[in-house]
């Protein structure tokens, strides 16, 4: 994700970020969402970030670091399998990116 953001951050309208990142290929260590936050904290804010992780301390730390660096962040708690995506997450996406409604 950092590799992609390094090339495309200026195009981002919204970033949705979990703490636990899945490897693209078996055996890869993708790092964590906190690594992505550290990358973002070193750059000017261009959009809001939705932090969606069930790890409360990780979410708090990620939001704190983002906000301390001038980024706007909101936490969405994943619950009920993927029901949270159709509820809290999409509500925040629509609120933060009104252009998505078109």
Could you explain how this protein is built, in words?
The chain has helices at 2-8, 33-41, 56-68, 83-96; strands at residues 14-17, 48-52, 73-76. By secondary structure, it is an alpha/beta fold. Strands 1-2-3 form a three-stranded parallel β-sheet, sandwiched between helices. Helix 2 (33-41) links the parallel strand 1 (14-17) and strand 2. The protein is globular. The two termini are 27 Å apart. The mean pLDDT is 90.
| Average pLDDT level | 90
Helix-strand pattern, N to C?
HEHEHEH
Number of strands: 3
Helix content estimate = 40-55%
Features:
single chain; 102 residues; alpha/beta; 3-stranded parallel sheet; 4 helices
In a nutshell, what does this entry contain?
This protein is α/β, with parallel strands linked by helices and 102 residues long. The chain has helices at residues 2-8, 33-41, 56-68, 83-96; strands spanning 14-17, 48-52, 73-76. Strands 1-2-3 form a 3-stranded parallel beta sheet, with helices on both faces.
Reconstruct the topology from this structure.
Blueprint: H1 2-8, E1 14-17, H2 33-41, E2 48-52, H3 56-68, E3 73-76, H4 83-96
Parallel strand pairs: 1-2, 2-3
Helix pairs in contact: 2-3
